[in-house]
Amino acid sequence: MNIDHFKREHADLMVAVTELRDLVHAGVQDHAQTILQQLVAMSAAIKLHLAAEDRVLYPALVHATDPHIAQTGKQFQEEMGDLAQVYMAFTARWNLAAKISKDPDGFRSDANNVFKALHLRVQRENKELYPLAEQV
């Protein structure tokens, strides 16, 4: 399976996270509107990526003839549901610039937790899942 598109999306997502982190470091209150715009753009990209994984990647892995690949694909798919829900709840909590600027410490803490989990997930997919997908 060719997963170059998924790999590019991961790289683009990590760039977007870095840009968001830079905005936060520059000042949450001063950049609340730009932070919100970055979150909206990231959310759209993440939703498309997750949909493509659900439609293409996970079914291919789960139906692989190699039991290790099939089990790993199923495990990753099940784990992803939790992270997707956490991310969507995060974006729902911080869906207005006024909310972000009103509680900069809360936003910063929440964002750190969510994006750390997202970063770890991307790293695991890149190291563990994608090499298996390339075998399918």
TrEMBL record:
What is the protein's species of origin? Dyella monticola
> Could you tell me which residue ranges the Hemerythrin-like domain spans?
3-133
Query: Which Pfam family is one of those matched by this entry?
Result: Hemerythrin
Q: What is this protein called?
A: Hemerythrin domain-containing protein
